[in-house]
């Protein structure tokens, strides 16, 4: 009995000297990725020292910090499509507007350290949309031609594959290739197109989320330069210039432009008259 009585004060002393456990807040996943229109789970778990009913708050960071969950209720756009279990929040049918950084805050006023928090980043993945394709209908041999393909809505950004007559165009293996293709920007460039490049072109956008999407194919025709037509056009222009020049010279030589300039001179002053022209030869007074 005496040994027991000696141990009790020591146990009490150890209990009084043991460090308190402050409020701690953790998450199972700091980065969450979900497909568009699927549910997103933002986990948050906590442990308190004494307070058994701490205050739970969720906030979303942006230009301004906005409340997601406060005073036991969801706020704003989360009001009718979010649930909470403990401190873990589930967002139903997440959209791109839901993407961003969230913060779970636990406030325990009865604890020695009464505030803890953790951050969760939500990324909403968007499958490809039908890309916008810019494909010229024709060009002349030897010219530089660019075909463009772009999808601005997919997340992560899409990569692009070009097709000619339903066959995928491979990346050029030589620096001397007549074309170059950038799978990230979607640009297919021919440095000097040839007649063999004639065909139906289309582009496929993919990003690993959902089904890839393709734009409608378009036919591009490559033709040789019509030398005869170019020569005929040049000769025709030269003839027009010669005829106009000769006509102008003849008109100028015959004084056509001088006569018309005199008639159109609005500042023309008539020559002075001889005072004799205004003398009366007889009186009109009777």
Can you put this structure into words, describing what you see?
This protein is an alpha+beta fold and 286 residues long. The chain contains three helices and 21 strands. The protein has helices spanning 2-17, 227-253, 256-263; strands at residues 24-26, 31-35, 40-42, 45-47, 55-61, 66-70, 73-74, 82-85, 88-91, 100-107, 115-125, 132-134, 138-140, 145-150, 159-164, 167-168, 179-182, 187-190, 199-206, 213-214, 218-223. Strands 2-11-10-5-6-7 form a six-stranded mixed sheet, with no helix packed on it. Strands 13, 15, 16, 19, 20 and 21 form a six-stranded mixed sheet that branches. A four-stranded antiparallel sheet has the order 12-14-18-17, with no helix packed on it. Strand 5 and strand 6 form a beta hairpin. The chain is elongated, with a radius of gyration of 44 Å. Residues 1-18 and 278-286 have low confidence and may be disordered.
List the topology elements:
Layout: H1 2-17, E1 24-26, E2 31-35, E3 40-42, E4 45-47, E5 55-61, E6 66-70, E7 73-74, E8 82-85, E9 88-91, E10 100-107, E11 115-125, E12 132-134, E13 138-140, E14 145-150, E15 159-164, E16 167-168, E17 179-182, E18 187-190, E19 199-206, E20 213-214, E21 218-223, H2 227-253, H3 256-263
Parallel strand pairs: 2-11, 13-21
Antiparallel strand pairs: 1-4, 3-9, 5-6, 5-10, 6-7, 8-9, 10-11, 12-14, 14-18, 15-16, 15-19, 17-18, 19-20, 19-21
């Amino acid at each position: 009995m005496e040994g027991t009585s000696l141990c009790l004060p020591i146990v009490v002393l150890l209990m009084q000297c043991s460090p308190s456990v402050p409020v701690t807040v953790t998450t199972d996943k700091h980065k969450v990725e979900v497909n568009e229109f699927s549910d997103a789970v933002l986990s948050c778990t906590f442990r308190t020292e004494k307070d058994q009913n701490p205050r739970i708050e969720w906030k979303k960071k942006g230009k301004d910090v906005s409340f997601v969950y406060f005073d036991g209720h969801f706020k704003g756009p989360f009001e009718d499509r979010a649930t909470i279990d403990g401190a873990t929040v589930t967002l139903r049918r997440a959209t791109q507007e839901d993407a961003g950084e969230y913060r779970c805050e636990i406030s325990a006023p009865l604890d020695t350290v009464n505030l803890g928090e953790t951050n969760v980043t939500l990324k909403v993945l968007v499958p490809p949309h039908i890309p916008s394709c810019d494909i010229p209908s024709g060009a002349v041999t030897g010219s530089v031609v660019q075909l463009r393909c772009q999808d601005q809505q997919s997340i992560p950004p899409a990569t692009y594959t070009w097709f000619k007559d339903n066959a995928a165009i491979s990346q050029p293996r030589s620096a001397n290739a007549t074309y170059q293709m950038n799978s990230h920007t979607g640009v297919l460039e021919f440095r000097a197109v040839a007649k063999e490049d004639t065909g139906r072109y289309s582009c496929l956008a993919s990003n690993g989320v959902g089904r890839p999407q393709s734009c409608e194919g378009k036919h591009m025709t490559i033709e040789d330069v019509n030398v005869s037509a170019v020569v005929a056009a040049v000769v025709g222009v030269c003839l027009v210039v010669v005829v106009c020049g000769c006509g102008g010279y003849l008109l100028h030589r015959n004084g056509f432009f001088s006569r018309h300039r005199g008639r159109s001179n609005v500042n023309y002053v008539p020559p002075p008259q001889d005072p004799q022209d205004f003398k009366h030869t007889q009186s009109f007074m009777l």
